[in-house]
Amino acid sequence: MTTNVTLADDWTGWIDDRWRGFPTGYAPLPIAQIAGRGWRPQDGQMALPLLSLDLTTFDLNIEAVMRYLATEGALIAPHAKTPMSVAIARRLEEAGAWGATVADARQASVMLEGGLSRLILANQVGGRGGASRLAALLWHHPLAEVHVFVDSVEGVDALAAAWQAESTRGKGMPPLGLIIELGGGRAGVRDDQSALDLMERILALPPDSGLRLSGVAGYEGAVVVADAKESRDRVDALMLRMAALHAAMRDRVGPAAPLILTAGGSLWFDRVLANLGPAAAADGRTRLILRSGALFFSDHGVYKRGLAAMEARGIGLAGRIAPALRLWAEVLSTPEPGLIICGLGMRDAASDQGVPMPLRIWRDGQELGAGDHLLIEKFNDQHAFVRVTGDGPAPAIGDVIEFGLSHPCTNIDRHQLIWGLDEQQRVICVLPTSFG
């Protein structure tokens, strides 16, 4: 696990008890000196609540995903919005990721300043203001390879004007790849003729504009509905639209130009591969790049259910992905029979895709038993109302409850630090996040 221990070694800051998780009253420490102190979330020494990452499970998830994609002939640029951690993005790149995906120019800045050089900005930048900000950022990173989604002539024209303006500052701008996004339910070109017209507008840009047509994108998660069969049909239809636009694009740019086909969240990437994999393989000059980010972390809620559905569709990878994130909180009060108040609230955990699930109860650092007879009924800002729903160990004041979570993206963003744990659940590194 050497790679895990050194995940955050390049971040030279100090932390103290103003940071969630750091033991209250403990002397400040450089982040690189956290390992080896024997801290464990369940021992009562660390300030709770905190968010942890099981590094062994995380590494096994990475290995499983990368091996699976290699057999499928696909690449991945994991969406950095999930952890917003440069250390994690670099770990994924070292393991074989093509690069990283970001959602806006600020996230791009975090990753570029952290040493990553290949990004997909999987979003529209807006108009003149957004285009100018992106151009100003990339002026400082002339060697970066960046591709951005476009779905309108207005967006293309704004980017062209911004690149032209920045190029007059006396230093070359990096070329910017424009990926036409086809959509439904969110952003993206809605009809195929408009997509072809947009393609022609990009191809008509002057050769020295710094902008080039680089591929086709979609996000299948925006078209799914409650019904599984209808969702599959909608996802397949979007992928077929992407394949058709890619074929038209190949006809226009010629056989030698490199292109990108990119889609794939963490719940329907099997349909992305099934529909777009053959087109990319037959083309020979097209990279099929998934953008799944939460997949590497999984969870005990929405992604656990989604991966189970994928496994039922015959995707063996789904059964090899395990939840790697945990929340830890202390029992503060047992004010009435059957009710437990924990120090875990809306400031610490998300509930948009389900509340955290009690997994285990710890007392004085030792496991007391499973927590499947416990259920969070509601949240306040700093409190979780946990109801006892069946037989099992009775948590007492001062016990620590280990929670699984649902939806990594909206849970991690409440935390400035992710505490990395080894197989004995000892802290061996700290991963700073950059959510702004």
UniProtKB/TrEMBL annotation:
Q: What are the GO MF terms of this UniProt record?
A: D-serine ammonia-lyase activity
Where in this chain does the record put each D-serine dehydratase-like domain?
Answer: 324-422
Q: Has the keyword rRNA-binding been applied to this entry?
A: no
Keyword check for Lyase? yes
| EC primary class | lyase
Lineage of origin? Bacteria, Pseudomonadati, Pseudomonadota, Alphaproteobacteria, Hyphomicrobiales
UniProt entry keywords in alphabetical sequence:
Lyase
Q: Which family does it belong to?
A: Belongs to the DSD1 family.
Q: Under what name is this protein listed? A: D-serine dehydratase
The record's EC number reads 4.3.1.18
* Pfam families from the UniProt entry: Ala_racemase_N, D-ser_dehydrat
